[in-house]
Amino acid sequence: MKGLFKLLSIILGICQLALSLSTIADMDRMKHDLSKFLSISRFNETEKSVARAAIKRALEAVGLNSMTHTFIHEESNEVGANVIAVQKGPYFGTGNDKMMILSANYDTLEGNQGVDDNGSGVAAVLEAARVLSTLDNLYSRQNTIVYVFFDMKHKALAGSHAFVEDVLLPLMERTNTKVVGTVIADGLLHFDPFPASQAMPNEFESFFPEAAQKLHEHSHMGDFIQVSSRSDIDDDLVQKYTRAYDRSCEMLSSDWSFHPWSLNLQMNLANITSLDRLYKLHPFLYSDHSSFFFHSKQKSVQIPTIYLTDTLNLRGVRQYCVQCDGLYMMTEQNMKFLALMTDSLIRLLIDMSGSSASAVVDDLYSFMFNIDVE
Fold first, then answer.
1. Where in the sequence is the signal peptide annotated (predicted)?
2. pLDDT tens digit string along 175-204?
3. Is the overall model pTM greater than 0.85, yes or no?
4. Which helix (H) or strand (E) holds 271?
């Protein structure tokens, strides 16, 4: 009875989770965010200010105070603004903290509605923050979680660069806080399980022969999430994320007619000595994870980081129409994929933040959806 009461408590606490799909993530809430404020171009300051205000309201609705981190683009002198929310653990600001960072950029290219790129990443981070905040009312948590929404990804990664240099590195140096993992979510919506729907950059096979072979065996279908990381530095984070992703897929197998998988791209940057070789790797580095790979103290401070993406304009119709990123991307199949991806992030955060909810998350699935959990 005690276990049943606990399960009932968490179900009541996580208001109306997953009414249409067997996930912890609330698909209807993510649909709301995508349709209301993440399907409008977020290129100029007027457009971005609307999105920032909506992000801050969504965070405040779940009890998370947010702050605006302003910075100046080094080349254009434009003012940008990141949004940061800190879910503090008991050791916040000390050397005993093991901080986890979950992030997504909220800006878009000019004239692009940005539902997948990167409204989907923002929606996933907001939903993960909601669930983790709700769990905090019921379960203890040991480590701090930081949610960051970057500006100016599409302008030389200026927002994530400013966050690392102006906020994160000074905090780590001042407090001896350890960052055990950073996840960059950049396109989590597009799922295209048809042969030849997936393209890759020219150097893909050269840098990642095993991944290229695996993609070939899958008939070049866009039915996976790409996980980019560095050799050694990010291995533990990759393993923990893969475990969370595989478990989410396993729990949803009865509700999912296709079989999503993960394509791991592991980069051995230490062995790349020529600038020409590094330049050719650029297509796999041009997103906010690079700000965590390459920073002013990278020789002494390593920040484990993984980059999650559906490959954006390399998949499906977006290969031929970069601007085709509107509300019609919100198909039932794509929304299921986004919910799955968000579930995997929630599982990872529960694990790496030291939340005691980890002991009941599979029981929650079992109770809610009548799934046998081994």
1. 1-20
2. 999 999 999 999 999 999 999 999 999 999
3. yes
4. none
